[in-house]
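Because showing beats explaining, we think one record worth quoting, sequence and backbone structure tokens together, and here it is:
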Amino acid sequence: MKIINLIFKEDLFMRSKFQMLYRVIVCVVMFISVLAGTGVSAEKKEPIQMAILLDTSSSMDGLIGQAKSQLWKIVNELATAKRNGKTPSLEVALYEYGKSSIPAQEGYIRMILPFTGDLDSVSEKLFALTTNGGDEYCGMVIESAIKNLQWNGSNDILKIIFIAGNEPFTQGTVDYVTACKNAASKGIIVNTIFCGNHKEGIDTKWKHGADLADGKYINIDQNQTVAHIDAPQDKEIARLGAELNKTYIAYGIGGAEKKERQAKQDMNASEVGAGAIVQRSLAKASMQYDNSGWDLVDAAKNKRVEVDKLEKEQLPAEMKNMSVAERKDYVDKMMKKRDDTQKKINQLNEDRRKYVANEMKKQSKTNTLDTAIINSIRDQAARKNYKFQ
């Protein structure tokens, strides 16, 4: 500021213009921060980054169905991870490949979502996926994910790619060997999931791809119906999961639409089976389910906004005519209701875990997408000093 004052010492007009511009810039930055829910006071969590690359060619309907039904189970597994006593944030990216409706010049590859912590958005995109015949270029989609996703620069955090499909790993103009070695050089683990016979996956180089990038090779039956074990706690967990939605307060640009999307993802989970809505309800009671960008309760809890400083236009209809004190009381009331409901869900889940564990001992194990991903994550996270519940 001393330099600026010297420059403008003899020119009051220029100095006033500079000060006005400075104030405008500060106000714009503060306003954008509030609308985006990204205030500087929010604590930055260490991430786990997971990119899921799904073959959406015609034969992969079963795989996509498993992804839709098991997303929340995978999230719940990661929600129990801790390192140095802290829970990491989860960032998920989605790619599809092998669909003929995607232009050939793009390699039949599409980034559906870049890395995001918005888990409802991940669910929404998964449920919008359709299959269509095409050529599956594994090396190309891996290379695209490495180059075009914003990977964390630290090799100390867990960075994983899961690629699933059923055609030879060798197809396409990008050599899978080069792509997998490139991933490994950046500290990115590549896990390969072959949808078919174990030996066929080895013969078509799916195992070799995983070996090159410190990953695991797994084969699954993509048409296997994922077994759900009904537990006595399930109905109450699902009911409480629905109750949680009543505690969300949409604010800012697009907040109301995102609250509607939350309800839509509940409906999507319900339609694929009882297990999915139970797992989604459990996820909504975890630290991974953070909607600070549009929900005032999460935003206030994470210190991303100050409720008393929000403009009236940014508030939902039920809060527009409240005084500042009434706003704070309302948000505090919803925060307490949510905390209480989440605690009830987590307490029920303690008993549910024990019940399911006992029942699983009586059943034969099947390799499905969720077990492939969860088992790989547990093993690879342990190498980075993560501990799971």
